[in-house]
Structure formats: structure tokens, C-alpha cells
């Protein structure tokens, strides 16, 4: 007869088994629901025997450790498939929107298509692929028109990236006079590359725009400061407003330039190539702007100094006038000499 201790151990073991069964069933039901949702999103139906068993009668599923491990693998596989199909659907929609834009597809058609092709299920992805193929066919049928649109789009992107003539001429296909699929495909790639370059460096371009605004404002205010008439036109506290704006520029422009230079240096170190701005290294361009500004200020100060000391600055116009005056004076003197000579001759004749 088993001892009391053994009976107690058996009873405890049975309780553990019961608790394990309850826990495993709860886990199974939770994961079964997850599988059903994943399959619904994917637009898939179970094919493998194990998958069918998972979706079948819960009471028929054996709650063994190996089955639960296999169930976990199934969920992982479906999750990976979900991510793949999401990415595929997103890429197809991006491609489709680009084709629709270039082909100028009617807005109502686009809205209807989008509203009926939601999600990333198997059927939706297939429909997206079919629509992309249809648009690709239309693109080839209107190849000349499409190439011209690509050229316009590429030129706009070059403008946004501040590409100079030298950078643009590197894309030889842009200047091709041929209209064929090769030209179209290469231009399409160039457009995608330009978009990627702009988007990858969009923070730099935002800083460039901000700096240009501050720089142009600073130059305009300096020109206004050199205008004496503004002192007599100080209506509505204009001079006070200018002073406030000047202080803002003095604070913001150095900050923006520091941040821009830091990002440019990071880019050049990371990419191991120069960041150009209209065919010139952007950092060099900014330094050259400051050098030219200092030089212009120095010339302006020298001009003012000469005016204040009574020495008129020599210009081509004043130099020409001086020459004319000298020539005129010489001519008058020569005329007087000739006249005196003639009078003298007349006296001698008498």
C-alpha cells in the first residue's frame, strides 16, 4: 500500500499537470486567434496539415510541448510574411502613384481604385501588380511625352538640389535627342536617384534655405543702412524695427551656419565626397561670400573716406571728363598763341 507521502506527491503532480494543461490551453487559444488574424490579413488559407489542425477543433489539438513550439514557429513565419507583404504593397503603391502622376490618370479613377484595394492581402497585392503593369504599358505607348515629363521632373529636382551646369551635364541621357525605352528607363533611375539624394539630405537643404533667407535679409539691410535718405523717412519707428531685425540676424545667421557646416562635414566624412552647391563646395561658397562682403565693405569705406577728405574717387566717367578738360584747355591755349602770332605778323607787315 502506497505511503501517505507518495500519495501526496501523486496528488501534487496531478495538480501540476492540470495547471499545465490549463495554461497550455489558454496559450493555445490565444495563439490560435493570432494565427487566424494573421491569415485574414494576408488573405491566405491554411494548406499545411499542421496549419489546418491549429484552425480546427480546439479540443482535437494535442497540447504537447512540441505542438506548442511548432505553433510558435507558425506565428513567426506568418509575422515575417506579413512584414514582407506590407513592404511589397507599399512599394507597389509608391510606384503606382508615380506612374499615375506622370500619366495624369484621372483623380476619380485613382480614388476609386485606392478605396477598393486596401490592406496588403494576397489579392490586393495581385491587383496592385496588374495596375502597375497596365500603367507601364501606357507609359511605353506614350514614350516621348513620358520622357519629356521625366526631364522636367529631373530639372526641378536639380534646382531643388542646387546642382550647377557641371553636375547636370554628367547626366548625358538628359540631353539625348532619342526617344526610346533605354532613355526613359535611365531618366527614371536618375529621377529616383535625385529624389533619394534630396530626401537623404533634406535637413541640409532646409538649412541652406534658412541661411539664404537670413543672408539676403542681411544684405538688404546693409544697403538700406547706406542710404542717408532713410534717416528722414523714419515713419512708424522703421529704424527701430530694422535694429530688431539686425539683432535677430546677428544671432541666427551664425547659428544656422554652424549647424550647416557641421552637417556638411559629417556628410563629407561619411560619404567621402564633396557636397556641391552650384558646382562649388558649399563650405567654400559660404566662405567666399563672407570674403566678398568684407572686400565690398572695405571699398565702400575707402570711397566714403575720399569723399569726406574732398578727393573724388576716380571712376571711368570722371577720368574721361578730366581728359576732356585738359584737351580743351590745351586747345584754347594753342588758339591764343596762333592769334597772337597772326597779330604780330600783321604789325610787321605794316
Task: Please outline the helices and strands.
Layout: H1 4-42, H2 49-55, H3 65-103, H4 107-116, H5 122-141, H6 143-160, H7 165-169, H8 181-200, H9 202-225, H10 238-271, E1 276-277, E2 280-281, H11 282-308, H12 316-349
Helix pairs in contact: 1-3, 3-5, 6-8, 9-10
Keywords: Coiled coil
Organism: Schizaphis graminum (Green bug aphid)
Protein name: Protein regulator of cytokinesis 1
Helical/strand content category: mainly alpha
Question: Helical residue percent?
Answer: over 70%
CATH class division of the largest domain: Mainly Alpha
Biggest sheet details: 2 strands, antiparallel
Stated plainly, the CATH topology of the largest domain is called Methane Monooxygenase Hydroxylase, Chain G, domain 1
Structure description:
By secondary structure, this protein is mainly alpha-helical. It has two domains: 4-101, no CATH class; 144-227 and 239-301, Methane Monooxygenase Hydroxylase, Chain G, domain 1, CATH 1.20.58.1520. Helices cover 79% and strands 1% of the residues. It is built from twelve helices and two strands. It has helices at residues 4-42, 49-55, 65-103, 107-116, 122-141, 143-160, 165-169, 181-200, 202-225, 238-271, 282-308, 316-349, and strands at residues 276-277, 280-281. Strands 1-2 form a two-stranded antiparallel sheet. A hairpin with a 2-residue loop joins strand 1 (276-277) and strand 2 (280-281). Helix 3 runs parallel beside helix 5 (122-141) and helix 6 (143-160) runs parallel beside helix 8. It is elongated, with a radius of gyration of 41 Å. The termini are far apart.
Amino acid at each position: 500500500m502506497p505511503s501517505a507521502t507518495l500519495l501526496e506527491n501523486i496528488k501534487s503532480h496531478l495538480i501540476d499537470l492540470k495547471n499545465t494543461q490549463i495554461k497550455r490551453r489558454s496559450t493555445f487559444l490565444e495563439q490560435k486567434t493570432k494565427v487566424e488574424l494573421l491569415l485574414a490579413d494576408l488573405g491566405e488559407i491554411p494548406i499545411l496539415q499542421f496549419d489546418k489542425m491549429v484552425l480546427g477543433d480546439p479540443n482535437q489539438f494535442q497540447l504537447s510541448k512540441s505542438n506548442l513550439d511548432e505553433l510558435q514557429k507558425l506565428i513567426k513565419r506568418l509575422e515575417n510574411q506579413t512584414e514582407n507583404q506590407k513592404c511589397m504593397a507599399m512599394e507597389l503603391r509608391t510606384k503606382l502613384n508615380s506612374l499615375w502622376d506622370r500619366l495624369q490618370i484621372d483623380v476619380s479613377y485613382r480614388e476609386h481604385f485606392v478605396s477598393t484595394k486596401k490592406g496588403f492581402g494576397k489579392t490586393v497585392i495581385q491587383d496592385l501588380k496588374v495596375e502597375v503593369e497596365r500603367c507601364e504599358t501606357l507609359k511605353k505607348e506614350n514614350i516621348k511625352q513620358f520622357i519629356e515629363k521625366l526631364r522636367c521632373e529631373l530639372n526641378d529636382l536639380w534646382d531643388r538640389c542646387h546642382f550647377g551646369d557641371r553636375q547636370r551635364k554628367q547626366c548625358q541621357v538628359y540631353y539625348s535627342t532619342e526617344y526610346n525605352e533605354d532613355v526613359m528607363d535611365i531618366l527614371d533611375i536618375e529621377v529616383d536617384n535625385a529624389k533619394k539624394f534630396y530626401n537623404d539630405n533634406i535637413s541640409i537643404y532646409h538649412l541652406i534655405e534658412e541661411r539664404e533667407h537670413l543672408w539676403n535679409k542681411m544684405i538688404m539691410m546693409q544697403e538700406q543702412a547706406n542710404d542717408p535718405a532713410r534717416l528722414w523717412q523714419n515713419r512708424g519707428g522703421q529704424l527701430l524695427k530694422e535694429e530688431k531685425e539686425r539683432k535677430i540676424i546677428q544671432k541666427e545667421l551664425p547659428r544656422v551656419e554652424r549647424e550647416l557646416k557641421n552637417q556638411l562635414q559629417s556628410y563629407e566624412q561619411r560619404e567621402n565626397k564633396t557636397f556641391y552647391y552650384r558646382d562649388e563646395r558649399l563650405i567654400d561658397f559660404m566662405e567666399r561670400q563672407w570674403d566678398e562682403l568684407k572686400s565690398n565693405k572695405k571699398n565702400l569705406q575707402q570711397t566714403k573716406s575720399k569723399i569726406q577728405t574732398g578727393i573724388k574717387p576716380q571712376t571711368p566717367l570722371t577720368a574721361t571728363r578730366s581728359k576732356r578738360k585738359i584737351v580743351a584747355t590745351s586747345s584754347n591755349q594753342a588758339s591764343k598763341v596762333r592769334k597772337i602770332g597772326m597779330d604780330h605778323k600783321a604789325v610787321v607787315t605794316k
